[in-house]
Amino acid sequence: MKVYGLLGLSLGHSFSQKYFTEKFQKENIKDCLYSNFEIASLIDGIPLLKQMRELSGLNVTIPYKAGIFPFLDELSAECTEMNACNCIKITRGKWIGHNTDVTGFETSFRPLLQAHHTKALILGTGGAASAVAFVLKKAGISFLYVSRTPNALLPSIGYEKIDSQILKEYKIVINTTPSGMYPNVDDYPKIPYEYIGPQHYFFDLIYNPGKTLFLKKAAMQGAMIMNGSMMLEIQAEESWKIWNGDD
Questions:
Q1: Which of 2, 65, 138, 211 is catalytic?
Q2: Assuming Cys at both sites, which of 82, 102, 190, 237 could form a disulfide with 130, CB separation 3.0 to 4.6 Å?
Q3: Catalytic annotation on 211?
């Protein structure tokens, strides 16, 4: 039996277990199990997981995408560049870190891009934000991080700095924070939605619920919107390839 799973702190929102369980059934994949591994501390939890000989791969979610690094034996170039890991291949006792956020976000983000989408606001500064920034750089889209506590080492501003002029200039807004994620569906990033219009493109990495208040408020102003459902599926399939590909 090969065991795969999702590593995180609170996983009640996640569809990963359901996705892989259904995948195993549909594709007649035998002797495989996907479980949720909720741990309150990496220091306490990882040693226990490393004792599971049948454990073959993990997805990593909030808040451990960067914190997992000391427990990995190897890192892909993408993990090193973004300082974030969301996929671990476990082979012959070695834990090898990868990042599938880039492929997942890029593939789902690009179809709605238009010529005037040249600048973006990235809400949040965590591991997923790093992957988003990686894709934007590749696409030639300049960006600012938006954070409650801006980092002087990053191109960043506080939420209170977002005004009509900023939103006139930055037509893409990407939420990488958990604000609005189930069960806290009444939460949303606090930005002035009244300045949003049809030329804006709002992308939310959250997939549960399918339409967060962040997206609903943007859509009411005529903006194009996209949630993280497609990104999740792409990430899941990329993880499966990594876990079962050649070393």
A1: 65
A2: 82
A3: no
Please name each of the domains of the chain with its CATH number.
Answer: 2-99 (3.40.50.10860), 103-229 (3.40.50.720)
* pLDDT tens digit sequence for 180-199: 998 899 999 999 999 999 99
- pTM value? 0.89
Strands (DSSP E) found in 30-168: 32-38, 55-60, 74-75, 87-91, 94-98, 119-123, 142-146, 156-157
* List of long-range contacts for 157-164, beta carbons under 8 Å, 24+ apart: 159/189, 159/190, 159/191, 162/121, 162/191, 162/192, 163/192, 163/195, 164/192, 164/195
Residues in the chain: 247
- Tell me the C-alpha distance between 48 and 144, whole Å: 39
